[in-house]
Every structure is written in structure tokens, then in C-alpha cells.
Design brief:
This protein is mainly alpha-helical. 49% of the residues lie in helices and 4% in strands. The chain has eight helices and two strands; from the N terminus they run H-H-H-H-H-H-H-E-E-H. A two-stranded antiparallel sheet has the order 1-2. The longest helix has 17 residues. The chain is globular.
């Protein structure tokens, strides 16, 4: 996205929306049930890994998270609650906080990790802990997840523009085609 935005003559406003990658695996208590088969086998993840590596090499995108660095079974729900809070209440700090969530490779399902990342982004750790525990905000995030499903978002990342959609780690040229309709 950053590489694509640099090529544009005019600014591109971006509106970020949350998506629950593990929503289909959540039980009634909201916890992820890891034993549910999502159809994503080793071959799928190897294909994704190759695509990400190819894009990282081609576009010198060292900040892209290495899939091998991802902790197993991470549930990003609390991270998304924290991100929602920061985007609403501390908008000026949101880009730094959001980037830290997705490039560090730490377990963003852990409140202490989120508090550390918040401090690194110039936020108060206790402020983030309080935001994560806010049931009203958690319910709003669940509603946002439902809205994303209704808008045909089916993976991360999904890019939508003027009724057109592309998904996955895509090169800047594909984002240009999406936005310009060419």
C-alpha cells in the first residue's frame, strides 16, 4: 500500500475496517476453537509464504511480517479492540500503533504485549488495557466484523474501491488497477 500511495499524484484517503480472520472458529464464549478445520493446510500457507516473499523482495518491503515469525494460534481480537480505540481517541498515534501490531511478530493476543506496543507508539499502557476491557467497544468491534462479512470481505487484507475488490498481499500495480479501474 505504501509503495502504491507513493506513485499517486494525488492523495488517497484510506478507511480501515476490522475483520475477524478467526470468526468462523469462535465458540459461543468468543474464544477461538483451534480444532476446527478451516481448510488452510500446509500447501496453502506455503503458497502465501511464497507470495509474500516475492513481494517483499520485489518491492524492498522489509517491514512486511515474515509468516514464519507469527506466533501460532494468535487471536488478534484484543489487538483490534485496541486499534479501534486508538483510531477513535488518539488518531494521531494510530498509524504508529497499527504498524507496530502487524510488523513486530509478537503475540498481539497478549494484553502485556499490546501495552508495550502502545508505549512504543507514545500511548499510555493502562489506557490500552482499559480500552481492551471495554465491553461496549468489544461489542462494536463484533458489529464491525459483521459489517465486513456483509460487504463480502473474506480475508486479510481486502482492498475495496468503488465496488471493486482485491484480496491478499498484492503488488502496487494491482492496487492501481483497482483504484483507477484500468
Amino acid at each position: 500500500m505504501a509503495a502504491y500511495r507513493e506513485t499517486r499524484e494525488r492523495d488517497l484517503d484510506i478507511d480501515w475496517h476490522p475483520y475477524d480472520r478467526r470468526g468462523h472458529r469462535r465458540g459461543p464464549d468468543g474464544e477461538v476453537i483451534h480444532s476446527i478445520d478451516d481448510g488452510k493446510d500446509d500447501e496453502y500457507f506455503e503458497r502465501v509464504r511464497r507470495d509474500v516473499d516475492r513481494l517483499r523482495d520485489r518491492y524492498d518491503a522489509e517491514a512486511m511480517l515474515d509468516l514464519d515469525d507469527l506466533p501460532e494460534r494468535v487471536d488478534s481480537f484484543d489487538a483490534q479492540v485496541a486499534s479501534l480505540y486508538v483510531s477513535e481517541e488518539r488518531r494521531d498515534r494510530w498509524p504508529d500503533f497499527d504498524e507496530a501490531l502487524w510488523v513486530d511478530g509478537r503475540d498481539i493476543g497478549d494484553a502485556d504485549v499490546l501495552a508495550d506496543l502502545a508505549e512504543d507508539a507514545g500511548l499510555d499502557a493502562d489506557e490500552i488495557r482499559t480500552a481492551i476491557a471495554d465491553e461496549e467497544r468489544r461489542d462494536r468491534l463484533r458489529s464491525d466484523f459483521s459489517d465486513a462479512r456483509d460487504a463480502a470481505v473474506s480475508g486479510v487484507p481486502t482492498f475495496r474501491y468503488d465496488g471493486r475488490t482485491t484480496r491478499g498481499a498484492v503488488p502496487p500495480e494491482q492496487l492501481d488497477r483497482l483504484v483507477e479501474g484500468v
